[in-house]
Amino acid sequence: MDLNTWVSDNAMKLFGMSERTMVDFIIATARKSSSPDALYSSLQAAGAPSDDSARRFALELYGRVPHKQSTSVAAAAAVAAKAQRKKEEKEAAKLRKANASFQTLLEEPTHTRDDDQDDDQRRLRKMEKKLRKKQKREKEESNALMSDDDTEIKTTARDRKRKKEETEEQEDLDEKEKEEERLRDIAERDALANRIKEKDKEKTKQMVEDRSSKEGSEARKRRNLGDDKDARKSVLPSIRERSRQEYLKLREQQRLELLRKQIEDEEFLFRDQKLTKREIQEHEYNKQVLALAEARLQIDTKEDAYMMPEDYITEKGKIDKKKKESALYKRYEDDEQFISEQDQWEQLQIQKSARRPEREGEDDYELVFDDDQKIDFVMAAKLNEPEGEDAELMDRIDEAERRAKSIEETRKSLPIYQYRDELIQAINDFQVLIIVGETGSGKTTQLPQYLYEAGYTKDGLKIGCTQPRRVAAMSVAARVAEEMGVHLGSEVGYSIRFEDCTTDKTTVKYMTDGMLLREFMTEPDLASYSCMIIDEAHERTLSTDILFGLIKISTRSQVIDF
After folding, report:
1. Residue 458 CA to chain centroid, in angstroms?
2. How far apart are the C-alpha atoms of 489 and 286, rounded to whole Å?
3. Out of 77, 435, 473, 531, which could bridge 467 as a Cys pair, Cβ 3.0 to 4.6 Å?
4. Neighbouring C-alpha atoms within 13 Å toward the C-beta of 305
């Protein structure tokens, strides 16, 4: 009976079904099982009953089905067979050597020895034949096992190759679909751009060049100038000269505006500071330069002569009547406000003659006193009175003392004063410290002073504080310098764009975020700073975000102020 038919009949008895898939499953389980007991356990797990009929079926099926062995088992069996063959070959060699030794004894031609020799040879041939049969059988079994493994390996490789081909085909299809979709997107984008361009073109007003100007007109000259390269080169120097004059005029206005702004800032920041003689001279010189420049701009010669009017001929060659009339009557309009030098001299002489003359002899007489009748205590009182310069100096000293006392009281009244020691200890312990406080609590002005008093500026180090705006850096630096009782620009200074108010003695430096980023170009490690304060960090400017990372790896201590 065929194996499939026999298994189908028994499967119907044991499992109640005889489908093709059930038969294939039972045969595959039998091939993979290592023993009849293992096959019996697998059938029980699949739903077979636990009785003698199922055990007999498992035993018979295990004997009829070829079993699948692993490559390692086959290799081990081949190694064992090879060792056995070597062993038997050694025994056969020993036996042949013994037989050869028996053949050398020719001086004993006895019939018994020949019979024994023939028996040994027959026995040897029989053993060799048996050995060859065993080797052939083992070789056949090994080839059968290897063929099963090769078949399985080939089947697995074939499945793997098929799956790989299917995956590659699917990937090619996906890539093809993506490429088609990308091309469609590009085509739609180009079509949309063309539609928008056409729509804008329809709405754009078409300007038509006016070529109706007469020969020799200004419009015709400009048009000819644009078409003629040599003519453009000849006119280029005059155009450059006019452009240069316009640039110088604009630059003059900008420089005057910067000078005016500088004078205003100096008067605002240094109004309560004691300036040196050189600084006062520079400030007065800047004010004088500004006054002279503004006076020069206000000068109007207005010469009493005929001025050529502006060109009132249009590009089309026609005369603009309104422009012509305004040019002709402009002189008479200006004469109403014009005052000549002769008129100015006459007015000056009239003012001098109108002054009241001083009465002569008004101070010719003095009071007469007798020196002997003077009282001594008046002189003593005058001796005790301070001189004018001394009194002024004492007043200034008193004023400075009152101001210092007021500043000290103000500092102690700030909310941050009670946390002074805790802040200093926290800055010593941690590299990065975040301080959050209400506006006006004293974070910006007091923290640098606390660090200065704690010795963070020893060995020539500085304390830096960044501000997001230029005015804030200038005003805060002026306030801290006043509280510390130093001159702005010496121990306390600021650095902003186009202005650096610091010296080699500066230990507390206020600056904008951009100026600190610029310092990173010349000093990436910020070795000259002992502590850096990032003020107004909650505003999250681009410079502040960049400084977070740079300062953390560059400075010894960092304070982020909110």
Report:
1. 34
2. 19
3. 473
4. 4
pTM of this structure: 0.35
Q: For residue 454, how many C-alpha atoms fall within 13 Å in the half-sphere facing its CB? A: 20
Determine the Cα–Cα distance for residues 280 and 294; give it in Å rounded to an integer. 21
> In this structure, is residue 220 part of a structural domain?
no
Q: How many domains does the chain have?
A: 3
- DSSP-assigned letter for residue 491: T
**CA–CA dist 353, 358 (Å, integer):** 13
Token code pair at residue 518: 């610029």
Rounded Cα distance, 444 and 492, in Å? 13
The range of the structural domain enclosing residue 30 comes to 3-64
* Edge-to-edge strands, sheet with 432-435: 432-435, 558-561, 529-534, 462-467, 508-512, 492-496, 499-501
Beta bridge partners, 488, equal 492
Structure-block tokens of residue 6: 């026999």
Residue 182 lies in a domain: no
Residue 554: closest CA among 469, 464, 493: 464
Distance CA 537, CA 544 (A): 7
Biggest distance spanned by C-alpha atoms of the chain: 195
The answer to whether the beta carbons of residues 458 and 253 sit under 8 Å apart is no
The residue among 298, 323, 339 that closes a domain is 298
* Judgement on whether residues 551 and 421 belong to the same structural domain of the protein: yes
Q: What is the CATH number of the domain that holds 426?
A: 3.40.50.300
Residue 263 near residue 280 (C-beta atoms within 8 A): no
Residue 268 covered by a domain: yes
The three-class DSSP label of residue 414 is: coil
Tens digit of pLDDT for each residue in 310-353?
556 666 667 777 777 776 666 566 545 556 667 778 888 888 77
Question: Which residues, at least 6 apart from 515, have a Cβ–Cβ distance to it below 8 Å?
Answer: 495, 496, 497
3-state secondary structure of 354: coil
| Terminal Cα-to-Cα distance of the chain (whole angstroms) | 95
Tens digit of each residue's pLDDT (9 = 90 or more) over 285-316: 999 999 999 888 887 655 545 555 555 666 66
The tokens for 438 are 């209400």
Which run of H or E residues covers position 480? helix 470-484
Cβ contact 50:35 at 8 Å: no
CA dist 338 and 301 (Å) reads: 10
pLDDT per position as a tens digit, 453-510: 888 888 889 999 999 888 999 999 999 998 888 888 889 999 998 888 898 889 999 9
Q: Are 128 and 92 in contact, with CB atoms under 8 Å apart?
A: yes
Examine the domain organization and report whether 292 and 418 are in the same domain.
Answer: no
DSSP bridge pairs for 501: 494
CB 521 within 8 A of CB 475: no
Q: At what angle do helices 229-269 and 277-298 cross, to 10 degrees?
A: 130
Where is 494: in which H helix or E strand? strand 492-496
Tokens describing residue 88: 């038997």
pLDDT band with cut points at 50, 70 and 90 for residue 109: very low
**47 is a domain residue:** yes
